[in-house]
Amino acid sequence: LVHELDVFLGFSWRDWSTTLIPGSIFSIGAMRTLSHKPTIFQSYLFLVLWLTPYIYFFNLSNQITGIDEDRIDKPDRPIPSGKVTVAGAKLRWALVLAVFLSIAVYEPTLQPETICWVLTVALLCATPFGNHWFVKNCVAMSTGTWALLGASWKAIAPLTPHSERYILAISLWAGLMTHIQDLRDMKGDAAVGRQTLPLVLGST
Known about the structure:
Blueprint: H1 2-12, H2 20-31, H3 40-64, H4 67-73, H5 78-81, H6 86-106, H7 111-126, H8 133-154, H9 161-177, H10 186-192, H11 197-202
Helix pairs in contact: 2-3, 2-8, 3-6, 3-7, 4-10, 7-8, 8-9
């Protein structure tokens, strides 16, 4: 168990600031709408149960398909560092996906966000479209943020018209502004032929 926790941290710690942390913060807004406060802690634990495979599924998908890039930009990650084999990562990927989908079956209100995220990750990691800056950030970051924030609210309380507007606005903003994250990975992105906006603008 300790080993698996260490592996999970190795795969995911860089992305907590864009998943587990903002999802938890956004859920506070949902908590404020509840009249029955004793259920908050239980609901938040359920949210963490959903957020964990949310980020782990993406990390495994991304790092299984991005080994060459990680050898350049992030050699400390579990696969390029040798801590985890590709076969081991694929086994974890299958188990995490099964858990993620099972949670959505258990809680049908989260099915739209769960399906949206699975399709978004597939677009990013299993198709060549994920290598283009528009799809990678403008599309996938927007849909991923929508799934993250929508589930973070709905795990606590029903959506309201105000919360739906907030989620949409933040999702669109994320899709427009997160190109900046690609500045740190330009060397690895160039090596694998990814067309991020910093590389496209830098080559003109």
